[in-house]
Structures are given as C-alpha cells and as structure tokens.
Amino acid sequence: MKLIFATHNLHKIKEIKEIIADSPKYAIVGLNDVGEYSPIEETGLTLVENALIKARFIWDKHGVPCFADDTGLEVEALRGAPGVYSARYAGESSSYQDNVDLLLKNLQGVHNRKARFLTVIALIIEGQKYLFEGEVRGEILLSNNGTGGFGYDPVFRPEGFSQSFAEMTPELKNSISHRGIAIRKLIEFLTARVDSAK
Ligand code: IMP
Question: What's the pLDDT score for residue 98?
C-alpha cells in the first residue's frame, strides 16, 4: 500500500521507514516524492489540528491514503511550553539549536525538569480520518548530550534510561519514542483493516 507521509522533514521520514522496516506491505513516500515542495502551514492551535490540516490538504489534492504527524515537547515547569510551538520556539526561522538554547535558558536554575514528547498522527483513508497518539516521559538535561537524532533529542532523557535520545542508536530511540509508539498503532490499525477486508 502506498502511503503519503505529509512531511518534508527527512529525519521523520527516515525514522518512520526504520520503524516499519518489518512491514514491507507499506511504501512510505514523503511530500518531495509527490512533487509537493511548499510547506503546509500549521495554523492549528493543537497537535491534533495541525496533524489533520496537513493530512487533509494532501488527501484533498492527491486522493491517496496519507498521514501526517505533529509533535510537541511539553515541559512541566514551563506549563506545557513549547508544545505545539516546538518547531518555532525561538522564532519563525529558528534552528534546532536555537530552540534548544532557548529551552535551556528558560530552565536555568529550575529544579523540576520533567517533560514529555507527544506525537499525534492523523491518517486519512477513503476520506475517513483516524488519530493515533504516542507519548514518552522524561526530563530535560542541563546541556546537550550526544549527536544523533534531531530537534530536542540532545537534551531529552527518557525515563528509565541514562542516555539522551541523541546518544541512543536509532533502533533504541524508535523502540521507545513517541513517534515509534504512534506509528506502530497506525500500522496495527492498517493491518487489522486489511485483514478484516479479506
Ligand atoms: P513538528 O511540528 O511535528 O515537525 O515538530 C516540532 C518540533 O518538535 C520539531 O521541529 C523538532 O524540533 C521537535 N521534534 C519533533 N520530533 C522530535 C523528536 O523525535 N526528537 C526531538 N525533537 C523532535
């Protein structure tokens, strides 16, 4: 089954392809692969709204099963910030490092460093929408640790582990991450749907 993943983020596409490597039934293509080069504006106020905006835009144009994810890092001491604004925390064209720097600055001297990543995936298939969620709890480190992954990975240490996401192998991160959990729910749903149609 061909599935369009409504993203230009090559890190996300790589992660999802690694996560579904065991399910060769699905061919995932990104937006560049279907000639969609412009960003889809994320004007929603929640992760769910943004995931649906991206998936709906592609479904309406291409009519091919498609999904989009929206992810936020929610920090308890910052009352859930940066949350839905995680990509632009330090401003519209901020880099991953700009966002991490601002986060560390805003948490300077703060004892409670509890945080969570939340991913929402919106799938649209035959015009129907379905939502899947994945969450991982952890804490924000005092400085960057590791060079793998992307985004806030160097400063996020998941509960029960001594390494940051950026210090983990991709396999380990994918096996416990917010996106890994959400994408496995998506694949289970699709597999059950195909099986019940047999
Ligand atoms: P998006 O809106 O879903 O693209 O994600 C918002 C921002 O969250 C991204 O720009 C990254 O900075 C961050 N982010 C998303 N997923 C991850 C992840 O798996 N690890 C670290 N940061 C992430």
Answer: 98
